[in-house]
Structures are given as C-alpha cells and as structure tokens.
Amino acid sequence: MIDGAPLKLFNSLTRKVEAFHPVHPGEARVYSCGPTVYNYPHIGNMRAYVFADLLGRTLSWKGYKLTHVINITDVGHLTDDADAGEDKLEKAAAAKKQSAWDISRHYTEAYWADVQALNIRQPAEWSIATEFVPQMIAFAEKIAPEHCYRLDSGLYFDVSTVKDYGRLARATTDEGEGRIETVEGKRHAADFAIWRATPPGEKRQMEWDSPWGRGAPGWHLECSVMGEALLGFPFDIHTGGIDHREIHHPNEIAQNQAFQQCGSLDDAACSGARIWMHNNFLVERGGKMAKSTGEFLRLPLLVEKGYHPLAYRLLCLQAHYRSELEFSWEGLGAALTRLKRMVMALEAVKARHAGDHSAHTTPSEGGWTYAALLDAIGGTLRLFAVDFDKAISDDLNSAIALTVLEEVLGHKKLASGEMLTLVSGFDAVLGLGLLDLTRADLRIRPRDAAIDEAEIEAELARRREARAAKDFATSDAIRDELAAKGVEVMDGDPLGWEWKLG
Ligand SMILES: [Zn+2]
C-alpha cells in the first residue's frame, strides 16, 4: 500500500538513518513530549511541535494511519531537571497567587493557540499528566520491587538495574555526577525520583495518595506511562527536543525496559519505541529565548511586530530539523518574503484557473497521500511529485521539498487545475496553508506602526516621482522618513511589494 521512496528517519538511539518499518502494518504510532504548562511557550519550544507535525504529516502522506499523542505536563517537572528543586507548576502558582490548576489551564490554552496559528494538526490525543495518575501508580508498583528503592523524599529508580543506561545520551552514569544535583541517599548520581513524597508538614496543591505516601509522580514516569497507556509498547516513534536526549528520555527508556522486563537496547523495542527522534535548538544570539529574562520570543510577539505566524513555520521548514537554527528578525523577514512570493505565484495560478477551469482534484477525507496524488495528476507533474516525495522521505528534508514546490510554482505553462492539485498535495505535508493564504493575510500591521497603508502608498508615489526626476536626495529622504516609521522600502523588489513593515 505504501508507494514512493522508502521512508528513512534518523534514530537518535543508534545515531543512524534507518528505514521506517511500522510495528503494526499500515499504522504509525507517535508520542511527542509536550510542554510543561507553567509559562508561555517561546518560539524555540514551538519548533519541536512544527517538527513533530511535519513527521506526522509525512507519515500520513506515506499512507500510514497515524495515531499521534502529545502530552501536557501539568505536574512533576521540577525547576532544575533534577530531583531537588520545586515543581514548576507549584512555583508559578505561588508566585502568581493562583491555583496550579488555573495556571496549567491558562498556559495550556496559550500553547494551543500557538499550535493552531502554526497549522500544527490536532493529535489523536492531548494526554494530560494529571489524568493518568492511577496508571502511573500501577506502573511504578510493577517496576518498584526490582528497580526502585525508597528514600524519605520518595521512590527512586536505580539506573544500575537496567542494561545500557544512558545509551541515548552517549554518557555513562559517572558522567552524570556533575550535572545532576545529588539527593542524599541516592545510590547513583543518575538515579531519579519516580514518585516524590510531599515533605512532612507541607501541602502541595497537586498531590495524590500512593503506596509511597502522599505526593506526585515524577516527570519521566509520566511520559513512560502515557506512551504505554495510549500507544502500547513498543510504539513506532518517540519525539522531543534535543535537550531531552540527555536526561528525560534516557530515564523514560530505563523505566520502559523495567516495565517490559527487557534486556539490552540492542533490541530497539526494549526502549519502548523503535525510533527516537530529536529536533535541534532554535538559537538566538541576544538570549531572548530564555524565559527567565522576562519578555521573551513568543509567537504573539512576532505577530505584533508584523510577521505572520506561518512565516515562522516556513523558517523552521527551511532548515533541517536536526540542524541548529539561528533566529534573527532578518531571517524571519526573508521567510515572510519567500512565503509572499509563493502566495503571489499561486494567486496567478488561481487567476488562470478561473479562466480555464481545468480539472482540479481535492483530497479525500483523510487528506492527501502520495499515492492518491499520483492518481490525480498527469505525466509531467508526476515527476515533481516523485522529487518531492524523495526529499521528504529522506529524513524529512523539508528544505529540498520546498524548492520542488517553488519549481512547480515557477512554471507558467502547466495546466492550472493540476498545478493546484499538486500544490495542495505538497501542502498536506508542509502545512503552510498555501491555498487559503492571500497577500492581504500576510500583510500584518505591527501594533506599534506609526503609519497606515494609504499614507505609505502616498509617500511611495511621491518617491517614485522624485526618482523619475532623478531627485535622489528627496527619494532618499522619503525612504528614511518611512524607515523611522517602521516601514522598509524594498527597491527593486521583483514582486512589486515595494515596502514591508519592518
Ligand atoms: Zn516526555
């Protein structure tokens, strides 16, 4: 049933590109580590979900029936990724004098708004950690006798009880010494709490009774349990940001080995998932990504400054997910311009289509697959579909896939209906919403813009006259005045947009 190039994905566990073979024929089951909802997500956090979405869309494109789970961590993630420190939710609740439940709802909704703005498809399930506590207790009870020990502060996992601990991180237990805060009584530095007991005399907002006293589950336990409960071990692919490769995912893997009573990680299924995938960081030289600095780079901030959210999605797709991506306003502006070019080219195709009404196919209810797209188009265009499929099947090479799309858009003679069909097929993978976007959608007025569109157009008309008269002094002065009001004049812009709000 699966046509086209074989799907190959980079497995962090083996550090190799591997052919994808589903556990259940025709199906793909994917678990993605989701946000900890104690603050707004920054755009670097959102890169992980654009990547997971691209993966999910590619699996659908290849014809697999996708079940995607993304979790919401609303309890159990500590401030320093170690076993000391405070729960991030409890800390935020105390600082804001609100209930932890209200805090998690508020930030979950903010995250979902970003998800929607970035055209990230809804997963089959948003698994909320606090809704799985009984399953977490049952999971911990099963592994505790052979793999855990108790301290006053909770139930701890002994990492020496499983084979190949830390293989994913390529670190040994000893290397963990420096990076993990030591809790008194731990047998190894890398041992971690799977249940954290509430200290005597204290009361947490989020706490539950357990065989190890009143307390809360550990973050690592949560993901193991939700993955197992919703997808079953082993499932196909586990994703997350590359920071999870060091501690969170090795700990999940250790728990999964214990739960399955499984041996060496040479058998990938012992890890709980056949393939572990990690997206690289979005970096920003000015350090604006850090939430601790107060104002940080959030998607709504980009919109306030006049950038359509899908320009950020395109910025992500231009880079390979395993490459570090540097954020700059110039880079985002270039992505927005590129998106505008695509939309304008597509508007020309739509205009031609309004005249010739050539045959145009819309996808079936499940969306486009590669096979369905090939059936819907003719000979010449099929070659583009083949190239696109080859690129995206090669460890999700969206950068190359985008150039194939642009090649199609650059053709003036292809049948307009088939072009629309092809672009809608490609966009099922890229998720840029190309067939619905218009030039007007992309021209967002920044919140602090000191000038409106009619004034800009009038100034530009005056500037064109000055230039025609070779009065470059006036022309430059107008450009500088506009720049002071936040408008960048783009001389020689082949698109004829002439200006953008910078
Ligand atoms: Zn996780």
List key phrases describing it.
17 helices; 502 residues; five-stranded parallel sheet; 43% helix; four-stranded antiparallel sheet; binds zinc ion; alpha/beta; globular
Ligand species: zinc ion
Distance between the termini: 48 Å
Label the overall shape: globular
Q: How does the helix and strand content classify structurally?
A: alpha/beta
Strand content: 5-15%
The tally of beta strands, per DSSP, is: 15
Query: Strands across the major sheet, in which order?
Result: 5-4-3-10-11
Residue share in helix: 40-55%
Q: What is the number of helical segments per DSSP (H or I, 4+ residues)? A: 17
Indicate the low-confidence ranges by residue numbers: 173-178
Mean pLDDT: 90
User: How many strands, what sense, and barrel or not for the largest sheet?
Assistant: 5 strands, parallel
Radius of gyration: 26 Å
Describe it.
α7 (248-260) links the parallel β10 and β11. This protein is an alpha/beta fold. The strands form five sheets. Strands 5-4-3-10-11 form a five-stranded parallel β-sheet. A four-stranded antiparallel β-sheet has the order 6-7-8-9. It has a two-stranded antiparallel ribbon with strand order 1-2. It has helices at 43-61, 88-96, 100-117, 133-147, 176-179, 219-231, 248-260, 299-304, 309-318, 329-356, 370-376, 379-393, 398-409, 416-430, 439-442, 453-468, 472-484; strands spanning 8-11, 16-19, 27-32, 65-72, 125-128, 148-151, 154-157, 192-197, 215-217, 235-241, 273-279, 282-283, 325-326, 487-489, 499-501. The protein is globular and about 85 Å long.
